């Protein structure tokens, strides 16, 4: 399906991504982990063609993605939708229009200028919002929503493109644990129910272990681990984060599990009170 071969990106003397190769044979959910500056964002941006590779190749179903230009490049960018840490919505625009922006790549400039959307697209946008449990917010301005809701709008916008691959760059880094869990659950569903490949840069080990079928670890621009969550032992994780990183499992853990434990505790307290 997706084949990355010796993909490299240099910024001046600095090599951000260094001869990275991996293959995705079938739709799956992949987590990319690594220290700050390891090259995770640059890798995703190259796959989406937001950043050009210095060397190497990206192929999708036999087609050379690295060589695409103009309309073909835009079509590819539709096929692999990107989700960002900061949601990248238009804050003053209503939610449904933000979602409809996901169809921009296949609409005329004039239709876009006058905010003209086909009825069928509007219905689909609302269906997608409904699927993500946020349809009631459709008429509100994006800025009126919580971070977690905004990220789900961004996911809806991505789904509007009907992408084969969803690339998510630290999708939960700005969210509280409860919303982080909701967003990760949505990404997992998008993979399982729709058969889309999800590749997410994650800054925490436990999220990668919990949600992903496969984890890729990067260090200094290179892949230093590629395996299942079970293979991602504490030792392997230490190698990914670098022996000198003062590594500890807890320092890279989100509080999803802590939250669950807190939830259980709260329930017990409530039960005890009854
Ligand atoms: N546009 C750019 N110009 C110059 N250097 C860049 C640029 N983008 C990234 N880099 C450098 O490339 C390296 C990899 O950066 P990248 O953002 O891909 O890392 P990352 O793993 O996503 O880090 P983080 O976890 O902090 O998001 C870093 O050394 C960074 O400074
Ligand atoms: Mg990054």
TrEMBL record:
Keywords: ATP-binding, Cell inner membrane, Cell membrane, Membrane, Nucleotide-binding, Translocase, Transport. CDD domains: ABC_PhnC_transporter. PROSITE patterns: ABC_TRANSPORTER_1, ABC_TRANSPORTER_2. One of its GO terms (cellular component) is membrane. InterPro entries: AAA+_ATPase, ABC_transporter-like_ATP-bd, ABC_transporter-like_CS, ABC_transpr_PhnC, MetN_ABC_transporter-like, P-loop_NTPase. One of its GO terms (molecular function) is ATP hydrolysis activity. Residues 2-245 form the ABC transporter domain. PANTHER family: AMINO ACID IMPORT ATP-BINDING PROTEIN, PHOSPHONATES IMPORT ATP-BINDING PROTEIN PHNC. This is Phosphonate transport system ATP-binding protein. It comes from Roseovarius litoreus.
């Amino acid at each position: 399906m997706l084949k990355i071969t010796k993909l490299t990106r240099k910024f001046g003397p600095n090599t951000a991504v260094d001869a990275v190769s991996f293959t995705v044979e079938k739709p799956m959910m992949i987590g990319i982990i690594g220290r700050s500056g390891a090259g995770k964002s640059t890798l995703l941006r190259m796959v989406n063609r937001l950043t050009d590779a210095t060397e190497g190749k990206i192929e999708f179903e036999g087609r050379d993605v690295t060589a695409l230009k103009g309309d073909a490049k835009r079509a590819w960018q539709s096929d692999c939708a990107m989700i960002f840490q900061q949601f990248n919505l238009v804050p003053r625009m209503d939610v449904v229009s933000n979602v409809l922006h996901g169809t921009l790549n296949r609409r005329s400039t004039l239709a876009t200028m006058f905010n003209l959307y086909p009825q069928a697209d509007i219905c689909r946008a609302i269906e997608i919002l409904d699927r993500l449990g946020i349809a009631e917010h459709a008429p509100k301005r994006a800025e009126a929503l919580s971070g977690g809701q905004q990220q789900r709008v961004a996911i809806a916008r991505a789904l509007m493109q009907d992408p084969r691959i969803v690339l998510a760059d630290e999708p939960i880094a700005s969210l509280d644990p409860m919303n982080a869990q909701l967003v990760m659950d949505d990404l997992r569903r998008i993979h399982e129910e729709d058969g889309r490949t999800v590749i997410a840069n994650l800054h925490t080990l436990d999220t990668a272990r919990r949600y992903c079928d496969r984890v890729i670890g990067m260090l200094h621009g290179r892949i230093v681990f590629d395996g299942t969550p079970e293979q991602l032992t504490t030792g392997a994780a230490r190698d990914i984060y670098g022996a000198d990183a003062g590594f500890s499992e807890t320092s890279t853990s989100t509080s999803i599990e802590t939250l669950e434990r807190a939830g259980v505790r709260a329930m017990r307290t409530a039960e005890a009170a009854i």
